[in-house]
Design goal:
By secondary structure, the chain is of the alpha+beta class. It contains ten helices and nine strands. The longest helix has 20 residues.
């Protein structure tokens, strides 16, 4: 049955539903959208093609807005353009890891009237060095740089974060739509041992340092609210489905389930799955409720 389903049509229906939910429920005019890929490891081991999926997730609601298969003959950089084509580009801030920090991605996002927050690492060495140069100059000789820091404690660890932002690009940054650059310092202390790192990035936004740090931290929602849940609760990585089309359909169904559960107000997905498995009438009621409200 799953093999006969049109995976693209199914995903299109999920995307339409997700966009409706967001338009009805979102009170944040600048919604953070995380872009990231996930490999279906069990399917990959079976020798299937197109076993890597690129997704877009709402930071606020933890629901998947779009998901496309990345051909084994290409990569996320190529696929992300198609993913952006499928999304509603309106009042969105796209966050991504360093792999997708590409000029054509920035152009695509800004041409659609949206914004981005990108991380610059060794795949964009010149960009990273330019950002570091701008920030070093501002910290040494200027006063326009803005900072914001947070300290989180719990579970035997302390995590310190500090972001430093400036819009004084001094002609160094020639990147589509770039308005500000930033540096994030992170230090995690556990059992007396501290691990530190610095991360550089740029954005088309002109918001303050606190908002940028929140968006940067929010990017991990796609790992915590989607990828981790699919692997741990739904055991996705151990699925031995050989057909990549069926694997994509199953991933879409998992995304639908996670989205419905989160919209029902339940955060503990595993506990919610057990509840709805024992109460199928409630699961059906949830489907009907969401169909009416969206």
């Amino acid at each position: 049955i799953l093999k006969t389903l049109d995976k693209l049509a199914l995903q299109a229906k999920l995307s339409q539903w997700s966009e409706q939910v967001l338009s009805v429920s979102s009170k944040n005019l600048l919604e953070g959208i995380d872009l990231d890929g996930k490999t279906l490891r069990g399917t990959k081991k079976q020798g299937a093609d197109d076993y890597h999926l690129l997704s877009a997730l709402s930071q606020s609601f933890g629901i998947t807005l779009e998901q496309i298969a990345v051909s084994s003959k290409t990569n996320e950089i190529t696929a992300v353009e198609q993913l952006l084509e499928n999304l509603v580009l309106q009042g969105r801030i796209f966050t991504m890891d360093a792999l997708l920090t590409q000029r054509k991605v920035a152009e695509k996002i800004t041409q659609g009237g949206d914004d981005y927050l990108m991380i610059a690492k060794d795949n964009q060495v010149t960009l990273k060095e330019d950002i570091e140069t701008v920030l070093t100059g501002e910290l040494q000789f200027g006063k326009s740089a803005e900072s914001f820091e947070t300290v989180d404690k719990g579970h035997g660890r302390m995590e310190y974060r500090k972001i430093t932002v400036t819009g004084q690009l001094l002609g160094y940054i020639n990147w589509p739509g770039a308005k500000q650059v930033f540096q994030i310092e992170r230090a995690v202390t556990r059992k007396g041992k501290t691990i530190s790192e610095k991360v550089y990035g740029l954005t088309s936004l002109t918001v303050n340092a606190e908002r940028l740090l929140s968006l940067s931290r929010g990017h991990w929602a796609i790992e915590n609210k989607s990828h981790w849940v699919r692997d741990v609760t739904f055991d996705e990585d151990r699925s031995q489905v050989r057909d990549s089309g069926i694997a994509q359909v199953m991933a879409t169904f998992r995304n639908i389930s996670i989205g419905l559960i989160r919209l029902s107000g339940r955060e503990r997905i595993a506990e919610a799955c057990r509840y709805f498995a024992a109460n199928p009438a409630q699961a059906l009621a949830l489907l009907r409720l969401r169909a009416k409200t969206t």
